[in-house]
What we know:
103 residues
Amino acid sequence: xxxxMLQMTPVKAVGQIANVQxxxxxxxxxxxxFSEFLVDSLKETxxxxxxxxxMDLDLAAGKVNDISQVVMASEKAQIxxxxxxxxxxxxxxxxxxxxxxxx
Length: 103
């Protein structure tokens, strides 16, 4: 199992934030757009779900010696799914709020 799939991004110090503001437009264009970030995140969530399901089947077949790996895979998949659903719900809320605005 790949432990590096769900890594936390370290918090940047105030001095590093100032450096981000100094990036040129070429550097900003080279960054990944939000839509690609979203698609990649959905793919990663899907892979975690598939991995957890495979490990559940392997556990049922008696192929897994350490049940903690199965539990960890299931929890990672559940957390990723909960985060994905929260992001979706917030996006829907934001869209509905924009639609309620009077022009």
